[in-house]
């Protein structure tokens, strides 16, 4: 765009702002500024879609500052709404300079704002207030603040794409309509990262009132490559140093090489567990790399942000916590570790680099296993082509409707139900809300006594419970507990788990990844909100039951991976090597030949096994024993939908439950005896596609996912007090009580929206039944079929009961308490720590060495031994106590140590003690193995 056109953008601003621009050194506007400042200066609503770092904040605020200089509002002139408090802090710092230059006031208000500051803002409102969606909800109800809000002429919503995909955003859209009732019509400006449906996001922002959409073509400003590192000789040494695999060592080495080649690098990972695991490895080798994710404290996050911005850190390892526009200074390069899963996420993350006068943003996607590499290649090509996912707006969230009905009652004291309905429907996510559904929600909140409804008078009013409910539910983010994860082998906490994961996935025997290691659950203590776990001895032989919250891979991306297989498969069948096929692919995908070949090599093994290749148009079903795998390139949500459908209908045939595990390319079923591949084919070929939704809703009734979601929805309706998860009886009661209510309808809608894709799954069944998708069976397992469920394993530290673990077990047992009890005289007992037990325990009263080593809480054993007449249970306890004492008599303190260990009874203690060993460490290794075995099997005792 010419300099004259650029000048025109700034020329539309007043002299004061132009002078400030000159002082600030803004000679040339960025592309978003060139294109968006004129319509915003004209007072039009606008959506600006551009990468972070391209001056979007100034694009929105310079014309608004210009308007405020002239207007001199009595109250708040403009609101700047951000989804994160950290962004509030950032925006305040960025806007302060302009405000000072223009003699305007900027202030921040959020949950941590002091009472004094709040009072000052109410008495003397700043010209611009930076706030969050939740704080706006609170402001709308304050009498003094409502007076200040009357003068609002402009509202900027930052990171609007982030809010559009969440219930927080749906709540904000109604909040803006409530603000309109106070302030009248005001200008709305949205700032968004790249999305596939900017027109829909524009409607979300404005209530479908029309707006100027300025979309910067990010695809011409990014440059990235996909890289699957080769294992070099030095990686073997690094693997030994880090106690990890050579593959993982090659990833660490590759990333540090990229960091060394740049001044400042952001390293994005997909989960907090990966951030912790990778961060620990960088720390081991002394890399100058900080870690930043949402589980860290606010002070820890600010500390690393400041250090990185000051150049004191070479790189920042982060999760989605850094996707949004937190200012950490100039970034030269972005590393995405593992597939970014979505096109929008890749563009947003890589887009954080560069931005010095339209400089290209550079990034590298470092991948591991073949699925990961192919997926990253597909996403990279789609990113260059601008094929971005839609924003996935929550339409018709009924708990938001309930929440905002209460908000309207708080705003006005009382109003007609008709007017409340019309205000809610002005918000785009609720444009299709029918009157009958609204009335059902209204009756529900009336029944829950959080508003008063007079249907005859068509009147809603505050009730005794309105105030308390509203301020406890300013946010639509569910109120979830966190569970401590406690390693019973080391006797220490290793991390936390979200309540949703505990309820939906956790059970004794389940395995998961945390802190780069794999763990098996021994016990879940609901009262203490604690999950007891033990480390898995050989992770290489295990697959995690769950690895944490995964970003779902879209249908279109998985289909492209299928098309890549469909292209490569016939070439390999015709005798071409993976390297030769790789050469063919490099012209279409941003990767070198070796990287592409590494993704295709598994296809060679697949073809060698004479197995059909699963593609975008071919579903391959394979089975072995009780495991059936449906190889299907349909993405997470569609495969989850088909998997649940198959589990429900196959289980219905046998009356037994069917286990499922899903990734974007596979549905793995654990089936009862008698079920075979043809049964699965039959379900796919015979199920009416129109019945998918109703069948899934029926199957969901038995799922903890729906019960848990329903409990959270019910809380937002004011129907439940704080519910603590995990109690199946409580969950079932919740389900039974709420089944025929709007709460149940909303819970089903939310699960379908977040987890499933009924429309796509129905379409897949139609295509199968029309013969457009072939379903092929193959006996035995295939290289592609067995390669799922491994994405979390690359970061696992092999656990071989090394010296540190052995020492931890030894120290823990020494500090454990034990009850010593003489089974000879039955008069003496003593509770003490194991370290204080003598080498040969002896009764101080009768001098017998027949001393039982019992749990401190084993009062029933002592009672049983002392009883004159014993029932069967007491006889059993007495017998075990005598066996216990016999082992202590024979082996002294060594027996006490073995018996104190978890799950080690007299027989196992005898086996452990009687084994011949090289040293004492082996004795503790045997104890540890027995504890792990107990943890694995405890659920069945």
Automatic annotation (TrEMBL):
The keyword tRNA-binding does not apply. SMART domains: DEXDc (SM00487), HELICc (SM00490). GO terms for biological process: DNA repair. It comes from the Archaea. InterPro entries: ATP-dep_Helicase, DEAD/DEAH_box_helicase_dom, Helicase_ATP-bd, Helicase_C-like, Lhr-like, Lhr-like_DEAD/DEAH_assoc, Lhr_WH_dom, P-loop_NTPase. This is ATP-dependent DNA helicase. GO terms for molecular function: ATP binding; ATP hydrolysis activity; catalytic activity, acting on DNA; DNA binding; helicase activity. PANTHER family: ATP-DEPENDENT HELICASE LHR-RELATED (PTHR47962:SF5), ATP-DEPENDENT HELICASE LHR-RELATED-RELATED (PTHR47962). Residues 37-213 form the Helicase ATP-binding domain. It comes from Halanaeroarchaeum sulfurireducens. PROSITE patterns: HELICASE_ATP_BIND_1 (PS51192), HELICASE_CTER (PS51194). Residues 254-399 form the Helicase C-terminal domain. Belongs to the Lhr helicase family. Lhr-Core subfamily. Keywords: ATP-binding, DNA damage, DNA repair, DNA-binding, Helicase, Hydrolase, Isomerase, Nucleotide-binding. Pfam families: DEAD, DEAD_assoc, Helicase_C, WHD_Lhr.
